[in-house]
From TrEMBL:
Pfam families named among the record's database cross-references: OMP_b-brl
Superkingdom in the source lineage: Bacteria
UniProt keyword ATP-binding present: no
Protein species of origin: Psychrobacter frigidicola
Outer membrane protein beta-barrel domain segment(s): 10-173
Protein keywords: Signal
Signal peptide residues on this chain, from the entry's feature table: 1-23
Lineage: Bacteria, Pseudomonadati, Pseudomonadota, Gammaproteobacteria, Moraxellales
Name of the molecule in the record: Porin family protein
Length: 185
């Protein structure tokens, strides 16, 4: 639950900062840039021996320079999942991406692609009794910063609110599947 509380606090702070900042910049081409903030939930797909896939919670925000191109930053953390039956594993990722959205003509549907850099950290601990009855510990600690990206689909409910589903590759040991909603300003 601590991750969910952190997510909600981060969303509230991000919303306040976005509202208090100047929300629109005109580019002289008839389009006004548009900031947005959102929340997402999903599942980490970990490639770590003995680890269950933890539930993911996150916040993200971005800026659309025009209807198709923008930038986005996100933080996604997880709850504790099972690690070798009697321990816990969790994952976190921070990323900054360039985004591209392709809107299907005459619909509110769009495809989304993003490419950027993400830092992902996976940590887990577990203990067990070996054949001699001696308590042993297993642990995993992996941190990876690398090129990351994802593909998704979205639906613009109206001009200020949308929902998205994404599949992201955030590290060599973790993929992320999420659904989210965002509010534009």
């Amino acid at each position: 639950m601590k991750t969910l509380q952190k997510t909600l606090v981060a969303l509230a702070v991000g919303s306040l900062l976005s509202v208090s900042a100047q929300a629109a910049i005109s580019y002289g081409n008839g389009y006004t840039g548009q900031p947005y903030v959102g929340v997402k939930v999903g599942k980490f797909d970990l490639d770590t021996n003995g680890a269950s896939d933890p539930t993911a919670y996150g916040v993200y925000g971005g800026y659309n320079f025009d209807p198709n191109f923008g930038v986005e930053a996100e933080y996604v953390g997880s709850d504790d999942a099972d690690f070798y039956g009697n321990g816990d594993v969790d994952a976190k990722t921070y990323g900054v991406y360039g985004t591209y959205r392709y809107f299907v003509p005459n619909t509110a549907l769009y495809g989304k692609a993003k490419l950027g850099v993400a830092k992902t950290k996976i940590e887990g601990d577990s203990s067990y009794l070996d054949n001699l009855g001696v308590r042993r510990n297993r642990s995993v600690s992996d941190s990876d910063t690398r090129l990351a990206g994802g593909l998704g689909v979205g639906y613009a409910v109206n001009s200020d609110f949308g929902i998205e589903a994404e599949y992201d590759i955030v590290s060599s040991d973790a993929n992320l599947m999420t659904v989210g909603a965002h509010l534009k300003f």
